[in-house]
Amino acid sequence: MSAERTYIMVKPDGVERGLVGEIIKRFESRGFKLAALKFVQADKELLSKHYADLATKPFFPGLLDYMTSGPVVGMVWEGKEVVKTGRKMLGATNPLDSAPGTIRGDYCIDVGKNLCHGSDSVESADKEISLWFPEGVVGWERKLDAQIYE
Ligand code: UDP
Ligand code: MG
């Protein structure tokens, strides 16, 4: 069993639209393990660090406005290949390119309102988890793991 972790975040539109539970449910049902969860109104300073690699993009100012337009739900999910699998569960960045069955493919249309974030690599996940959860995350043993992993 793997202790790989990813940072998944429900963006302000997802919170506003009442999709927090739906997004959590998909990760829970898949068998991933919750390690941290936080409801937070982020500021532009935090989001500039989170999206530092996009700082020169034309859509960056709009992205910061979007991401500070309301609270977000940040989570850490743990499990085998959870980074790559989490991205698949979210769908493509542009929701219109997202397959039905993915979160974006089922619930949204525009790239600037695409509901959720997921780390794109194990390295990004480590950075994002330290940024959003500087206090650390809960390490816990789940008895159910014996029914999920062979
Ligand atoms: N984004 C946007 N316009 C674009 C590309 C990205 O508004 O043309 C936003 C969108 O919300 C996306 C976020 O910026 O989720 C981060 O972009 P990235 O390329 O990292 O996509 P992601 O990793 O979220 O799929
Ligand atoms: Mg990204």
Automatic annotation (TrEMBL):
Top-rank lineage group of the source organism: Eukaryota
Keywords per UniProt: ATP-binding, Kinase, Nucleotide-binding, Transferase
GO biological process, one term: GTP biosynthetic process
Cofactors (names): Mg(2+)
Organism, scientific name: Mycoemilia scoparia
EC number: 2.7.4.6
Reactions catalysed: a 2'-deoxyribonucleoside 5'-diphosphate + ATP = a 2'-deoxyribonucleoside 5'-triphosphate + ADP
InterPro entries assigned to the protein according to its UniProt record, in alphabetical order: NDK-like_dom, NDK-like_dom_sf, Nucleoside_diP_kinase, Nucleoside_diP_kinase_AS
Domain Nucleoside diphosphate kinase-like positions: 3-139
Protein family per UniProt: Belongs to the NDK family.
Keyword Thylakoid belongs to the record: no
Name listed for the protein in its UniProt record: Nucleoside diphosphate kinase
Residue numbers annotated as active site: 117
GO MF terms, alphabetically ordered: ATP binding; nucleoside diphosphate kinase activity
EC category: transferase
Chain sites annotated for binding ATP: 11, 59, 87, 93, 104, 114
Family annotation (CDD domains): NDPk_I (cd04413)
